[in-house]
Specification:
Chain B: Belongs to the TRAPP small subunits family. BET3 subfamily. Chain B: It is found in: Golgi apparatus, cis-Golgi network. Chain B: Pfam families: TRAPP (PF04051). Chain B: This is Trafficking protein particle complex subunit 6B. The complex is a heterodimer of chains A (138) and B (159). Chain A has four helices and five strands; from the N terminus they run E-E-H-H-E-E-E-H-H. With 138 residues, chain A is an alpha+beta fold. Chain A has a single domain, classed as Beta-Lactamase (2-Layer Sandwich). Chain A has a five-stranded antiparallel β-sheet, sandwiched between helices. In chain A, strand 1 and strand 2 form a beta hairpin. In chain A, helix 3 runs antiparallel to helix 4. With 159 residues, chain B is an alpha+beta fold. Chain B has a single domain, classed as Muramoyl-pentapeptide Carboxypeptidase, domain 2, CATH 3.30.1380.20. Helices cover 48% and strands 14% of the residues of chain B. Chain B has four helices and four strands. In chain B, helix 2 crosses helix 4. The chains are: A alpha+beta (138), B alpha+beta (159). Chains A and B meet through helix 3 of A and helix 2 of B.
Chain lengths: 138, 159
């Protein structure tokens, strides 16, 4: 299970944030936002050097306590997942499939006519689905 | 086959609705106001592209994106690909469709040529919306010279 799921928009403004422990929210937000620089760096070098074009970016960085993974869609929306470092059950493949699930619920949410593109996501059903992905219950 | 027809009907009803609304609002305007229709297309394209690019690898550059528009994107909406793509490599792209779906059912002569803009505006919006969400700001116009073929001019706005 992951600790936190975040969605960052095209212009690097936060669109959605969910975490398992509300007391840790500010701390996690700080980690997520500071990892945006790593994403930027990865995107710039990846395009030039190799034919690395997968949406999943892998580990952005790992700290003593947390590991941070990133994923950028073709439309420049960034998804970030934070995992506890002590949790060894989650491998790259599991993280990748979590990102896929988040991407597909995100696409569904964008197609919702009541959602205004570029606005933070407030939909309750989206939140329910996102948290169940985060807790690994899907 | 059946769902194809449903889309055609929905589109022509959409066109009728928008034109009716604009006539009600603005009785004595000479040109019909199609900007609403274009906007509807824009938001459709904007939302749709998120779903269509889900399984795609990241696009290399602008041309790569245009190729995607011509093949996958076009197939998803019109069940065919663009017949010809031209570019001057300076931000102008011309997409030619020799049998544009919304014009296919209109007779070929010159008689209805003046009504053609109604049936291509939505598509202009869809293309513009799709590109906008992929990070390319553009201006899309259409040109119909003879009926069912249609050319879409995309001008990328660089700023």
């Amino acid at each position: 299970m992951a600790i936190c799921v975040a969605i960052i928009g095209k212009d690097n403004s936060p669109k959605y944030f969910a975490c398992s422990n509300p007391d840790d929210e500010i701390n996690l937000q700080y980690k997520v936002l500071s990892s945006l620089d790593v994403i930027e760096e990865k995107l710039n070098t990846a395009n030039k050097v190799t034919d690395f074009r997968e949406l999943f970016l892998g580990t952005l960085y790992s700290l003593e306590s947390h590991k941070i993974y990133g994923y950028v869609t073709n439309t420049k929306i960034k998804f970030i997942i934070v995992v506890d470092s002590t949790n060894t059950a989650l491998r790259d493949n599991e993280i990748r499939s979590m990102f896929r699930k988040i991407h597909s619920i995100y696409a569904d949410n964008i197609c919702n006519p009541f959602h205004i593109p570029g606005e933070p996501i407030t939909s309750k059903s989206f939140h329910d689905k996102a948290t169940s992905i985060m807790f690994g219950t899907v | 086959m059946a769902d194809e027809t449903v889309f055609d009907f929905l589109h022509s009803e959409l066109v009728n609705y928008v034109i009716e609304q604009s006539e009600l609002k603005n009785k004595d305007a000479k040109d019909e106001d199609l900007s609403n229709l274009e906007y509807l297309g824009f938001s459709t394209g904007y939302r749709m592209i998120e779903r269509l690019t889900k399984e795609m690898p990241r696009f290399k550059d602008e041309l790569d994106t245009m190729k995607f528009i011509c093949t996958d994107f076009w197939t998803a909406i019109y069940r065919k690909q663009i017949d010809n793509l031209r570019t001057n490599h300076q931000g102008v792209y011309v997409l030619q469709d020799n049998g544009f779906r919304f014009l296919n059912n209109i007779s070929n002569g010159k008689q209805y040529l003046e009504l053609a803009p109604r049936y291509v505006t939505f598509t202009c919006g869809v293309v513009r919306g799709g590109l906008a969400n992929l990070g390319i700001n553009s201006l899309v116009t259409a040109e119909v010279q003879s009926m069912p073929s249609c050319k879409f001019h995309i001008q990328v706005q660089r700023s």
